[in-house]
Amino acid sequence: MASGTPTLGQCLLSESTDFSSESHRVAPVSKKPIRVLIAADTFAPDVNGAAKFAERLAAGMVARGHEVQIMAPAPSRKYGTFTETHEGQQMVVHRLQSWRWYPHDWLRFALPWFVRRDSRRILDSFKPDVVHFQSHIIVGRGVTIEAKKRGIRIIGTNHFMPENMLEFTLLPKGLHERLIKGAWRAARRTFGRAEAVTTPTQRAAQFLERYTGLEGVLAISCGINAHNYSPNFEPRTGNRILFVGRVTGEKQIDVLLQAVALLSPDLNVQVEIVGGGDQKRNLEHLAQTLGIRARVTFTGYVTDAELRDAYTRSTVFAMPSIAELQSIATMEAMASGLPVVAANAMALPHLVHDGENGFLFEPGNSQDLADKLTTVLTATPENLDALKHESLRLIEAHDINRTLNTFECLYRGEPVTDRVISETSAHTPE
Length: 430
What we know:
Layout: E1 35-39, H1 49-63, E2 67-73, E3 80-86, E4 89-96, E5 99-100, E6 108-109, H2 112-126, E7 130-133, H3 139-149, E8 153-157, H4 176-191, E9 196-199, H5 202-212, E10 218-219, E11 239-244, H6 253-262, E12 269-274, H7 280-290, E13 296-300, H8 304-313, E14 316-319, H9 328-335, E15 340-343, H10 348-351, E16 358-361, H11 366-377, H12 381-395, H13 400-412, H14 423-426
Parallel strand pairs: 1-2, 1-7, 2-4, 7-8, 8-9, 9-10, 11-12, 11-14, 12-13, 14-15, 15-16
Antiparallel strand pairs: 3-4, 5-6
Helix pairs in contact: 2-3, 6-7, 6-11, 9-12
């Protein structure tokens, strides 16, 4: 990273800022609006954490009066430049010509040489003040090479772990280690062009520094608008476990199903799996084999309104994944006032404080997960409400306006004037 990058030691931590104020939703009148190009390998309508973060960030910046354009692979064969509405805000989106990656159930990618060509065209026509790339893989690599040539400020955010893509490469397992090392070397080159590098949590920042050799990676929460969600404190009428996310291998939904099979029949548990992915059919078969198929609903993809309703009607949220760099779904569950039972892996302990707003279980251990779920499902109304209230309290540190404030500072090359690492994300269990 360039020497001008603000480090954590240079960040000014302000305790007095009122993030509920409408003044934080618009650009300061004394400063010129920023022209931002957000470059991503995945963007809405793709359904994943990185795509959702980029969409919310773009919409938040537009709402504050900045001019934002998006550069991302087209989600279909139709490509070109369009005016689209995301999170209620209009913005220009450059949909790059893309090809389907068939080992994956939905992923599309742009060819590197086309990305370089399109980057030159977009940068020269839009003339952004800053380029913010969301992954180093293809789009981020191409656009940063061209932005660096033009002296444009570059900010990079990492949402990616190479290990998550191994099952979709179709390469022999004997080559996986070499592939991972190569991916991290590529990440080092691309993120090395940035003036500042961010990732959602402190643990994810340490992970990125360890595997790339980068220094001064900033931990900045993806942020969430908690007001969009509706906690339910009415007496429960049943026991409902919810999972939200991609139905893929690294999410370890099979561990959740195995845990549900271990629960006491007296709990009469219903399970809702919200999301789509390549493992849906295998998991349906597993649920049948375990004898719990009648109690498990696979909804596939749902609308935002249907998703909020799913959170509200649930008793507890389960996140068995071992590869979360933050987990927006877990944050949404907390904003909905749900206790969370999550794997003690990667960034999840930053959100789930064991015994306070939920419980952590040993990754891959279905019996431990079953025991922790039982603790929540048999809790007294008073203890259950205490867990819910603590989720609501902890999620306050991840207000989307804090995230927008921080990125505005990074875009302008100013010292960060808002808290980068909250108490919540800095929490690390023993």
